[in-house]
Structure formats: structure tokens, C-alpha cells
Amino acid sequence: MSSYLSARELAAGVRAGEWSAASSLEEYLGAIDESDGEVHAFNVVTADDARATAAAIDEAVAAGRDPGPLAGVPVALKDNLCTHGVATTCSSLILEGWVPPYDATVVSRLREAGALIVGKTNLDEFAMAGSTENSAFGPTRNPHDTTRVPGGSSGGSAASVAAGFTPLALGSDTGGSIRQPAALCGVVGMKPTYGRVSRYGLVAFASSLDQIGPFARTVDDAALLFEVIAGRDPLDATSIPEPVPAVSEQLDRGVEGLRVGVVGELMGEGIAPDVAARVHEASEALRAAGAKVEDASVPASIFGLSAYYLIAPAEASSNLARFDGVRYGLRVDAPNTNDMMVATRTQGFGAEVKRRIMLGTYALSAGYYDAYYGKAQKVRTLIIRDFAAAYDRFDVLLSPTSPTTAFPLGDKTADPMAMYMNDVCTIPSNLSGDPAISVPYGTGDDGLPVGVQVLAPALGEEVMFRVAATLEASVS
Amino acid sequence: MSEWETVIGLEVHAELATETKMFSGAPNKFGSEPNTNVDPVSLGLPGSLPVLNEKAVELAIRLGIALNCDIRPSVFSRKNYFYPDMPKDYQVSQYDEPINIDGFLELPDGTRIGIERAHLEEDTGKSTHVGGDGRITGAQYSLVDYNRAGVPLLEIVSRPDLRSAADARAYVAELRAILVAAEVSDGKMEEGSLRVDANVSVRRSPDDPFGTRCEIKNLNSLRSLGRAIEYEANRQIDLLEAGESVRQETRHWDENDGRTHTMRVKEEADDYRYFPEPDLVPLDPDREWIEQIRAAMPVLPAERRTRLAAAAGVELPHDGVTLVVERGQDEQALAAVNAGGDPARVLVHIEQNLAGDGGADLAPGRLAALVALETGGTLTPTQAKEVLAEMLTSDAAPEEIAAAKGFEAMDTGDLTALVDGIIDGHPDEWAQLAEAHAADDQKKLKKLSGFFTGQVMRQSQGKANGKLVADRIQERLQT
Fold first, then answer.
1. What is the tally of structural domains in chain A?
2. What is the distance in angstroms between the Cα of B269 and the nearest Cα belonging to chain A?
3. pLDDT of residue B441
4. Residue B268: what pLDDT?
5. Touching check for B439 and chain A: CB below 8 Å?
6. ipTM
7. Predicted local distance difference test score (pLDDT) of residue B1
8. Is the minimum CB–CB distance between B144 and chain A shorter than 8 Å?
9. For chain B, which domains are there?
């Protein structure tokens, strides 16, 4: 029963006492039990904690109290979100044995909203890469076709929702790590405006690009989860004070009169024809619903990938310095402190993480800073400017989320550049800090899900969700 | 040697007197059990984020005002290098856009020393290396205390305007006084609240370009600072006079052998890969806030010295005034003068007799009352000093203490009789004195009148008022 309900319906039933959080939880845990051996969405399932929370929620309801908008809803957390008392691994050997003494702000907000945290999901190590094959604990598989990748880096969270293990999940998105796996797994995934959601307790990959966001089966559920986690947090200096709009209440308003631009630069070379076809269909659907659809241009977006692969590794090289074997996680003994740090990092980090640390260290080095990091920041400014110019003409922009549908495991692991190209459509909004959402929109020639991306200006979540809801309603 | 000029620039790290750390709510407290004043942020735990302490910014602005700096919008950067006592393996510091630039500090003698910058940064933890020579290389194991990690610091960088060890000491003493007066830092060098690095070079003439400099670390007191600079300048002069050259390097001052030793050569300097700290937003303090802070600034040492010198009727620079202000007892002095105490005597007593424990706590009114007894002739300076010492531990009025000690002034009649008796008892000496008086032989006069005064003092057991004794001797000489 429960696995066919939306998160909103499930919570409503729990809050009304129509069914118990405990019994519906068992259905989800049963599904995980049955299929996660094959999918491997989870690094750890915290069934006992979830059961205890469910019991407490049922008691609260019985006592006449309201446990909150996510009462009894199972939620999966990407394993780079800190959970008090539960290991947080970032799917890396280097965090071996580390148990955070605190909850990430989003985790606290989920608990306060009555959610049941059922486990930590697999990711590409430290959220680097886009297939979830790059995990110290083995790959996650796409529930639609287990020979294929789920995308990444939040592949475990996307797979959890796609497989019906949880109605909701949280991921983090630095260059598309929520939206791309959402597209490949046929679920909704959204990256909020930078600063909308507190990053406190998210193990940093690239601080100026990272945002936490929701996965859900429906646009409405994604909106619900967004409303729970968003809002100013005094523990994150980059979190913004603007009030969070009640996006759920606006989903039915439609798109009549909205100006929609299809981003030409993200529709050309490298985009599979079947994916491009779905985007065209989506734009036609919006036109049919009353929107004004035209071609749009964000010229600097074609440099996004190059700028991203300097800025993100530069920040990562610094963010990941603290994993040195001194205070927590893995320590590989050696005759002196310096050698211990080297041995620990050599053994603890995987190849992709090392590659990015080296790239970033180089980009920040004296004599190279201006040519690499400095130049990339200028490109970032150009991208922000070009998006701003586009939003003078359009309310939202449309593009593919991923250039292709889910690819086979092992297909791109030997070619980092091919893997990086996955992010070409998603990276620009991380650089600009603007929100974007991926909505499932039919399938490709291979029968696998295609996602269409709706991009909006900063703080434009409300209109973005409206367009997403209209697209969702238009797909059969 | 005398033709050589020493050129010194100082980098001073001052720990700020905040309740909590630079970027988190962990306590900023000295002397706690290791690793107790910590939280996820100051330990750099994965996922933790910095939030800037507003009080630290206020204190930085206060110092900027005190040092006549240009207070500017600023940016925090990350200084990246691996070291076990640095939790994140980067230090958050202001790099190319510091909060305070282009100020100056005026030494008590009026010399202006340029301030290049005074920027905010976080402190590191503290390592103890066990085994080997006490350094990390070769240590058997190392212990790290993160209580200090994340404590807010101001790094205050002077221009190379100092020309002697004495100047350098005066600069640090004055800077310390400003930090304490402005309540920016407790200024305790012994607790590491104030840490000094000195850049030292020498040149033959003030017209020559600067010589190659060495940076000296581990200067934990004003005494070390002075000794180290003198040693280092002489070392460099010896090298140059022997036809050798000075190598740019960082040197460690060893208090025990009184020398500086090579720590690391500049060529090995790290590339810190500075970049703007993405977890913090640029700092742009409201102008109105800065003006509020300016309006609430306490009176600083230079102005306090001027005020005290004017009240005491002395000229600056004046060692007594400098000392009293440095010890923060100038308010006490001014209040005692306002209460009617003779300014010169008040200053002397505070400088010399109220330096110790409890001295600063003596009520100005009581000090004024004591000084009145002294200037009124009831107490001699020696007696006054003794009464003053007792006043620190007793609430009794100075008159009562003086009486208890038997310090009542002698009756004038008794004094006259005593003086006359001594004159009569020493006819030879008196004749010589009269002769010297007639010949206006000042030297002899002084010596012989000193003899009589001394006799009177001895016989009166110090109770005689010296001025009255001198008056009586004069009277007798005139007759």
C-alpha cells in the first residue's frame, strides 16, 4: 500500500491516525531487504533507529500531537550528510570508523518534521564523478536496468527513490549530482538556489558550488521536502535570510503567460537525439499550456565545464586536506607524522579523488593561480552575467538534464573526460548559484528514463516548481 | 661597529579577548585541560562550517582606530599547509584584503612607527613533540591540544621603521598598552596572548638600501626581544665585516644560550596556495557601526600620558608618567590630584611606592590625605612611605597609622630646643659652618648643614621635619 502513496499522502495518513508509521515503515524496509542486495543504494540501513522513531511518532499521534509534515515518511540520506551516532563515510576508506558527534542541519530539520531516517546512501567518493561506480564500497545499480549506472554522485539516493525503498531522499549537487542521477533513474531531483539550504554538516566537496536538495517520485513531494529543509541557518555563513516560498501551494497555478527559453548552447553537440527530442516535446507541452516558448542563449555556458573543473578541484584540494590521519578516520602508521599523512592519504583516497586534489593543488599554485583558478573565476562571472541577461527575457529556461540516458557500468570509468561531459548541462547553474530541477519526461530509444531540466533565476524556486509540475502533468 | 644601522620590523600576534572562538561558540580560554575547549568547528570535523565572531571584528576595528588605520572591507582566505596542530590543514586568515591598513603607532618619545596592516586570523592548536630534539622531525610521538585552535588573532605588521632593540621594546610595550587599554587583548606575553616575530637587517648607512633580513621567532618576553635583536644585529654585522653575506632565513631565539639559530632557509618556503575562503562572505562593516565603536573608544595611553603630565606639571617624555600609565594607575593619580594631593608627590608615590600588590587599589582620597600630611610637614618622605605601605593592608586613616607608629611631628618648640642643643654641643663644627656661610662656600655649607640635620634626625628618631630644621639653622646663622 504505502509504496504507492506519495510522501504527502503517507504523512497525511500517519498524522490522521489512518495508518501507523511503524507498519508502513516495515513495507519499505521489506523492499530494501528484498532488492538492495542487487541495487546497492545503501551503505548502511538504520532500521532500528527508524523503527524507534516510527514508534515515537505513532505514540505522538495517539497522544494527539502532530509529529510534523513528514510524519512517518522514510527518507534516505546521501552518505556525505553528518548523522549523530551513525557513521558517515562519503563512500571513502579514509573516513573509516568515523562517527559524527552531530547532525547536519538538514538532518535536524528532517527529524523535527517527523521523518524516519532509514539509512545512508552510496555515492561517488566525496561526491566526485557522475556514476556512483567510484565508491569504495562498490557501485550502485540503476533500478530500471541493473546493468546500467544510476548516475551520480548521489546515485544511491536516486536509486532508493526509483526502487521504491524510500519515498524521499536527500542528495548534494555540486555540478549536477542530484539532477543527473534523478534523470537517469526517472525521478525528480532538485538543486536549490545557493544558500537556500544550510550546508552545515554536509562534508564539503566544493564549498562555493555544493547545495543539498531533494529527490522524490513527484514534483509535489520534492516541493514538500524542499520546504522542510530550506531556510536560513545561523551555522552556515553562506545561508541566505530570504523567507522560503510556500512552493507547494503554487504548483497548480500553471504556466499561462510564462516566458520559457530553450537554451541553444545545451541542445547541440553531445546531446543524444532522443534526449533532445524529449526536451522539444516538453517545450511544446509548455506552449500548449499557455507559455511563450522561444530559443534562448547563454553564450558563456559552453565554458562552464572548463571553469568547473578548475574551481571545484581547487576548493576540494583544500577541503579534503583535513583527512590526514591525525584526528579521525583512517590512520596508516609510518615513522614520522609527515610520512603518516602521506601514507594515510595514499591508501585512503581513491583515484578520482586523488586526480582532483592534484588538479586543484596545481590550479592554486603560485605562478599558475591567475591562469587557472583566477581565469575560471572570471568565466564564472561571465556565466552569471549571461544567465542574468537571459532571465531579463525569460522566466525559466529549459534544457536536457543529462546528455544521454543511463549508460552501462564500466562504460566511462576509463575515460575521465567522457565522465565529466555528463555534467555539461547541469554545471552552469552550480556556477551561477541558480536553482534547477530535473523532471522525468518519457524515455529514450533504449526505454530508459530521460530528464528535462528547468532552470530558474536565483530565488526563483516557486516559478521553477510550477513549470516542473506542469511538465509532470503533461507526460503520459 | 658604530656606523652600522639596525633595521627592524615586527609582526605581533595578539589573541583577542573574546568569550568564544573566531568561527564557533567554543570557549576562548587559557589554561584549561587539553582538548576541552573544542567543538566540531574548532576541530575541523567534516561538515563543520565557520561563522565569523562579530566581537572579534569589533575588536579588530577598535585596534584599527587605535593605530590610526584605514579600516576597509576585507576578505578571508585560506592559507593551505599540512601541520597536525591545524585541524583543517588550512588556516583562515586575511591575505590580500585585510581589515586594517596604513596606520601608525607613536612611541612615548614621539617617534612614529608605520603600521602596514593589522588583520584577523585564527590561531592554530599547540603541539608537544616528545622525544628527539623537541621538534616534529625526529619526535617519538607528538601530542596536540586544540584548545587554542580557532582562537581569534590580530596580526599586526609594522613597517621596517624601528632602529634599535630599545625602540623595538618600546614599540611592543606601547602596542601592548594600547591593546590592553582598548580591551582588545589581555596582552599577556607569558600566556602567549602576545607573540612577537622580529625581522632584522643591518646596513652601513641610512642611505643604503635595506640589507638581507632574518626573521626571528620564539620571542616570549620584552627581554628576549631586546636580547635577540642585539645578538642578531651583531651576528649580521660580524658576517658582513668578515666579507660574508647574510642569508635570508627564519631563525629561532634560544633563551638559554642567548643566540639565534637557523630554523629554515627562505628558499624552502611553502607555497600556501591562498584563495578566498568560500565558506565565509566578504566582511564589509557598516560605517555607522565603525563610528559607534569610535565614539565608545576608551582614552588611549598617549593621550593619558599627556593628561597626566599636564596634571603633574612635568614635561613629556617622562619615565614616571610612562610607567604609571603603562601600569594603568593614571586614573588613580588624576583622582588623587583632584582630591587635593600635591601633583608631584602623588606621581612619585604611585610610581615608586604603589607599584606592588594592591597599590592600584588604594583609594585616591586616602593617597591625597597622606600626601597632605607629608607636604604639611607632619610626615617626612620616609615616614610617608612607611605609612603608605601600611595603608594597603589597613583601612585606618593615615593620621592614625602615623600616630600608631609614633610619627607625630615634633612640637615646634621642642624642635627648636633640640636644634639649638645640638648646635651648642658642636661648637667647632658650628664655627666652620658660620665661616662657610660668610664665605658663601656652597659645597662646605651643604656638607656641614647636612651634619647638623643628620644629628637632629638621629636624636629625634626621624620625627623632625627636615624643612623646619633647615629653617632653624638658617635663623641661627643670621643672628
1. 1
2. 12
3. 87
4. 55
5. no
6. 0.96
7. 46
8. yes
9. 5-293 (no CATH), 301-404 (no CATH), 412-478 (1.10.10)
